[in-house]
Description:
Number of strands: 0
Amino acid sequence: MMSGDSDKDDIPSTPPQAIYPLPLSTASSSVDAAAAASGRNPRCARCSNHGVSVPLKGHKAYCTYRRCECDKCQLVVLRRTIMAQQVAWRRRQDLDRLRHQQQQQHHKQMIIMSKRRKIRSPNDSDQPGNSLPV
């Protein structure tokens, strides 16, 4: 071995910025950091179809392929449409389920109130002179 090789071993292979990252100062970079921490790093599907990897955030208006009508991009459009329909369907189901539960609760309350009215006869009203024998 040469003496120059031993000197290379003393120099760290990673730059100091990678070891000691700078603090995040902007809101967008903190959002990016949160996305990276959660493991999500969404990319534009249309650009990915054409071999370009672009982060999705803030990209919609500037996508080069937003008007592309190739088969792969049409598949992305179809998939998005189907997903939107599924989300709308689930939300409708959840809303219907909630309304049904509210109707059942209201029905139970009405039954309880009607039972209370039946238990209490007209002679038991709070009229003066009508009292229970002692």
